[in-house]
């Protein structure tokens, strides 16, 4: 059983990965406007109604949209950068030699070196193997004669949710993948 539910706003914009317990609370309070996904993620059973002799139960879908408007436009929020999300964005490929490596063999590499004020941002970070990272050192790719084989970019809202959820159910992955921007590396 996958423990996370994709929470959307009423318009279908991803808001958060929430726990099964949080999703049940939204069902119980009538906050769920619509749901999507194949088969229930889980069915929770409660006590018996003495008058009707029926056990209460809540079927939780893997994708739920909540009533009401979100307080902020999440398309204006830049996703946080983590090493694991960066490596997944770059498909475990070194930006200099184009070799594909295991996660433990890759490093986060600053295009504009950190020693020169290069920020820890999506557009200044790429995945690099240790050999290429050491060879480039504290130089720019141009100075080192090591052109990038791909350009860094800020993931879209939908890409970020795919990057965050490592073990996503197939139906939820498909739902998010249908909404990826054209040209996304995650397609």
Question: What are the defining features of this structure?
Answer:
187 residues, 2 domains, 6 helices, two-stranded antiparallel sheet, single chain, DNA Binding (I), subunit A, alpha+beta, 4-stranded mixed beta sheet
Notes on the structure:
The chain is an alpha+beta fold and 187 residues long. It folds into 2 domains: 4-73, no CATH class; 83-144, DNA Binding (I), subunit A, CATH 1.10.30.50. The chain is 23% helix and 24% strand. It has 6 helices and 8 strands; from the N terminus they run ββαββββαββαααα. It has helices spanning 20-28, 83-89, 130-136, 141-144, 157-164, 170-177, and strands at residues 4-8, 14-19, 32-36, 42-49, 54-60, 63-66, 106-110, 125-129. The strands form 3 sheets. A 4-stranded mixed sheet has the order 2-1-6-3, sandwiched between helices. The model has no long low-confidence stretch (mean pLDDT 90). This is HNH endonuclease. InterPro entries: HNH_5 (IPR029471), HNH_nuc (IPR003615), NA-targeting_endonuclease (IPR052892). Keywords: Endonuclease, Hydrolase, Nuclease.
Architecture blueprint of SSEs:
Layout: E1 4-8, E2 14-19, H1 20-28, E3 32-36, E4 42-49, E5 54-60, E6 63-66, H2 83-89, E7 106-110, E8 125-129, H3 130-136, H4 141-144, H5 157-164, H6 170-177
Parallel strand pairs: 1-6
Antiparallel strand pairs: 1-2, 3-6, 4-5, 7-8
């Amino acid at each position: 059983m996958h423990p996370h539910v994709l929470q959307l706003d009423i318009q279908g914009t991803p808001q958060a990965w929430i726990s099964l317990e949080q999703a049940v609370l939204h069902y119980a309070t009538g906050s769920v406007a619509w749901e999507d996904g194949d088969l229930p993620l889980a069915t929770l059973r409660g006590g018996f109604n003495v008058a009707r002799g029926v056990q209460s139960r809540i079927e939780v879908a893997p994708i739920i949209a909540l009533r009401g408007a979100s307080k902020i436009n999440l398309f204006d929020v830049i996703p946080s950068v983590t090493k694991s999300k960066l490596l997944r964005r770059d498909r475990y490929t070194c930006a200099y030699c184009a070799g594909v490596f295991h996660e433990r063999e890759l490093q986060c590499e600053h295009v504009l070196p950190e020693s020169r004020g290069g920020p820890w941002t999506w557009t200044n970070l790429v995945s690099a193997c240790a050999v290429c990272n050491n060879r480039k050192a504290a130089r720019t790719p141009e100075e080192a004669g090591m052109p990038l084989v791909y350009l860094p970019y800020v993931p879209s809202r939908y890409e970020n949710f795919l990057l965050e959820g490592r073990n996503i159910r197939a139906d939820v992955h498909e739902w998010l993948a249908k909404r990826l921007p054209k040209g996304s590396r995650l397609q």
